[in-house]
């Protein structure tokens, strides 16, 4: 019978939420019982009120009443199911046994030792100087402290719940903003694409009209010229036939039919009618069409330059002192390099200066960046000093040869140049840049240089092939006061 004690309990001994026997059972406003953790989880996010999960009865306020009797019955059933003897609970044990040493009722509580004492223990030397309180008062004091701490924890929990809700709302707002931004970008680019397509169709239609006008004019002109040529052919044939006549017939003049006597003044003189050519007018239309589209081409080119300036991802470049020329001084943090030549710089006295197009980064006063680029779009901004000479760009080492290929631009002998390993190209920017942006599109093999303050293109190299090799930022300074 003891073994089946738990089985004999009615179904009401099970929590309707977890379907297990009650743990710390409590009753709510409608009288139904639940495990305290279960009902607290259900009521963690109340809406209009606190509803019973079983009968759905709603109360405006939360009410949890401990069911000690039910908990006691369940504990007795558990003990019986395990074959344990029913021992008195802690309260009964205190009431029956009291102080284990003196067998007296426990009446007071020692705050210093945190122990229950009887009257004899209270007067002992060990507790005589301690603060003791009657049991109800001590229990009430500690309950108040616990309730205060519990309320503080609940307040902190409520604050965290509110903070979590606020963070979730802000996250959703951020997601909504990013989605709105995505839709705005898609809409703008879709509108731009449709506008460009429409304008392209319009221009192509105008070109087709011009082509049709040219074809029509060509056909009309060819028809007129053919008619005139046919008339001249007929006149040539007529004169040739007249020349083949006998002399008497040839010289005979018949005034009745209006034939004039032959003579030098009347032979071979024809009034040739050349049709007016439509080509000058068509050429004017083509020229006007071309002039109309110059502004569009400049706008599109400027837009492409802006994309080339804005699209690459900015990267920080740190100079590598181990690659620096002996006459260069690299800052300890690798953020700058300046000329510090104790001896005459390369080319001093001959007026040539450094020549990266001929020597490469190994012999010129140059230094490489630590960071290499092996893919994607990257850019970095470089501040240049107005004094001395400088150059900057990218370098790629040719595998197995120890030689370097350069794509760079810079100032040398007061002249701006675009410099590669093979050639120099003179540049004429509108103004000397103070800050230069190097933009690298690895896949397209494109290296471009911009005035970073004006956001204007200085020079862009034609597409190169990097062949899967790492491309390093490259810098050169030369002469007194030069610094990057």
Q: Largest beta sheet: what is the strand line-up?
A: 12-21-14-15-16-17
N-end to C-end Cα span: 95 Å
Largest sheet: 6 strands, antiparallel
- Main CATH class of the domain at 314-342 and 364-478: Mainly Beta
Number of contiguous helices: 10
Fraction in beta strands: 15-25%
Second rung of CATH, namely the architecture of the domain at 314-342 and 364-478: Sandwich
Global Rg: 51 Å
The coarse silhouette is: elongated
In round numbers, the mean pLDDT is 81
CATH H-level homologous superfamily name of the domain at 314-342 and 364-478: SPRY domain
CATH topology term of the domain at 314-342 and 364-478: Jelly Rolls
Number of strands: 21
Helical/strand content category: alpha+beta
Describe the fold and architecture.
Helices cover 38% and strands 19% of the residues. The chain is of the alpha+beta class and 484 residues long. It has a 6-stranded antiparallel β-sheet with strand order 12-21-14-15-16-17, with no helix packed on it. The chain has a 5-stranded mixed β-sheet with strand order 9-13-18-19-20, covered by helices on one side. The protein has a 3-stranded antiparallel β-sheet with strand order 2-1-5. It comes from Pomatostomus ruficeps. Residues 15-56 form the RING-type domain. Residues 253-275, 327-372 are annotated as: Disordered. Pfam families: SPRY, zf-B_box, zf-C3HC4_4.
Topology, element by element:
Layout (H helix, E strand, L loop, with lengths): L4 H4 L16 E3 L5 E3 H7 L7 E2 L6 E2 L5 E2 L1 H14 L8 H8 L10 E3 L4 E3 L1 H4 L9 E3 H109 L3 H5 L27 H14 L1 H17 L2 E2 L13 E3 L6 E3 L16 H4 L6 E3 L8 E7 L5 E9 L6 E9 L2 E6 L3 E4 L7 E7 L4 E6 L4 E5 L11 E7 L6
Helix pairs in contact: 6-8
Protein name: TRI27 protein
Keywords: Coiled coil, Metal-binding, Zinc, Zinc-finger
GO molecular function, one term: zinc ion binding
């Amino acid at each position: 019978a003891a073994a089946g004690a738990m089985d004999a309990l009615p179904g009401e001994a099970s929590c309707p939420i977890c379907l297990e026997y009650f743990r710390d059972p409590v009753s709510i406003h409608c009288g139904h019982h639940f495990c305290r953790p279960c009902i607290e989880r259900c009521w963690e996010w109340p809406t209009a009120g606190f509803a019973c999960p079983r009968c759905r009865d709603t109360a405006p306020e939360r009410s949890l009443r401990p069911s000690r009797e039910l908990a006691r019955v369940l504990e007795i059933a558990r003990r019986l199911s395990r074959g344990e003897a029913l021992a008195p609970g802690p309260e009964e044990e205190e009431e029956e046994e009291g102080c284990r040493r003196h067998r007296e009722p426990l009446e007071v509580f020692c705050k210093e030792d945190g122990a229950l004492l009887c009257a004899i223990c209270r007067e002992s030397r060990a507790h005589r100087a301690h603060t003791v309180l009657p049991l109800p008062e001590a229990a009430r004091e500690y309950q108040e402290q616990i309730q205060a701490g519990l309320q503080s924890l609940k307040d902190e929990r409520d604050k965290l719940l509110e903070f979590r809700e606020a963070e979730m709302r802000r996250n959703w707002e951020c997601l909504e903003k990013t989605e709105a931004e995505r839709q705005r970008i898609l809409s703008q680019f879709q509108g731009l694409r449709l506008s460009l397509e429409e304008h392209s169709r319009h221009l192509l239609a105008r070109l087709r009209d011009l082509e049709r006008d040219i074809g029509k004019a060509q056909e009309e002109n060819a028809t007129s010229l053919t008619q005139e040529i046919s008339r001249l052919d007929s006149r040539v044939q007529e004169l040739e036939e007249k020349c083949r006549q006998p002399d008497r017939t040839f010289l005979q003049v018949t005034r009745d039919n209006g034939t004039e006597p032959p003579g030098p003044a009347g032979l071979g003189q024809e009034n040739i009618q050349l049709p007016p050519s439509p080509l000058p007018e068509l050429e004017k239309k083509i020229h006007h069409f071309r002039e109309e589209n110059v502004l569009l081409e400049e706008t599109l080119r400027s837009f492409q330059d802006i994309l080339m300036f804005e699209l690459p991802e900015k990267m920080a470049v740190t100079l590598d002192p181990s690659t620096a020329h002996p006459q260069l001084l690299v800052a300890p943090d690798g953020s700058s390099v300046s000329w510090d030549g104790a001896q005459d710089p390369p080319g001093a006295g001959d007026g040539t200066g450094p020549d990266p197009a001929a020597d490469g980064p190994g012999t010129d006063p140059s230094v490489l960046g630590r960071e290499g680029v092996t893919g994607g779009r990257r850019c970095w901004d470089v501040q240049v000093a107005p004094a001395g000479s400088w150059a900057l760009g990218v370098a790629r080492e040719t595998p197995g040869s120890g030689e370097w290929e350069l794509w760079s631009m810079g100032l040398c002998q007061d002249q701006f140049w675009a410099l590669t390993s093979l050639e120099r190209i003179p540049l004429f920017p509108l103004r000397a840049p103070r800050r230069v942006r190097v933009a690298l599109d690895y896949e397209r093999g494109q290296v471009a240089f911009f005035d970073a303050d004006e956001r204007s293109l200085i020079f862009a190299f034609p597409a190169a092939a990097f062949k899967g090799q790492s491309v390093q930022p490259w810098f050169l300074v030369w002469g007194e006061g030069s610094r990057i």
